[in-house]
Specification:
Layout (H helix, E strand, L loop, with lengths): L4 E6 L5 E2 L3 E2 L5 E3 L11 E6 L7 E4 L18 E4 L2 E4 L8 E3 L2 E5 L10 H6 L2 E2 L7 E2 L1 E7 L15 E4 L6 E4 L20 E9 L11 E9 L2
Amino acid sequence: MGLRILPFRQYSDHDVVNLFSVIGSDVLDKTTDSGAGDAGVFVKVADGNFDKEPVEYQTNSYLGDSSFPFLGTTKMYPEVNLKITGAKDEDHAIGMTLNQTAKADENGEKLLYNPTKQTELQAVLPGQAVPVATKGIFTLSSSAFDGPITSYAPGNRIKLSSNAGKITGFSTVSATTVTTGDLVDEDKVFGHVLGTGTRTSVGPTTDQFAGNYIIISFDCN
């Protein structure tokens, strides 16, 4: 997976939403893949229709071939109906995913049949609700933000990037508009930078967390 969240983090379980699963196109084929199904993706609501059942049984190829008559029905796979996807630009992010959503492990073995490894990889299965932190302090690797590390000086603000799921940093809001006097970009800010750093590999072993990182505090509420 794209390693977006590094170990140091501070948040409360009271600030975690467990209502949504990622849309089908965001699901990772393997935990070593990277995309909108990563952990550390800032997301928006794609489907928030609470008139639907919380869980429905869907036709899902993840289970395999469902055309055999003795299976009884093609709709066997439980899936959370409420959906999220990567947020960008003018979107309102509800928070950041804490787990990745993937079908299989690095060897292509379905995580459905290995719940222990699924837990170790901090993954949820396709259709399962993924925990979303609405606020907190997190350490993000360079794969979670756009632009150079210099844009993330301590105190700089953060907002959503034009690339879905990522953030961008800036030091000041845009000039006031002539007609309204509002600060352009001010309503897009949902956090700020606490600090930055760089990790390098030492010795023959490659550091899994090598590279630039930032520590941010955000509140999507």
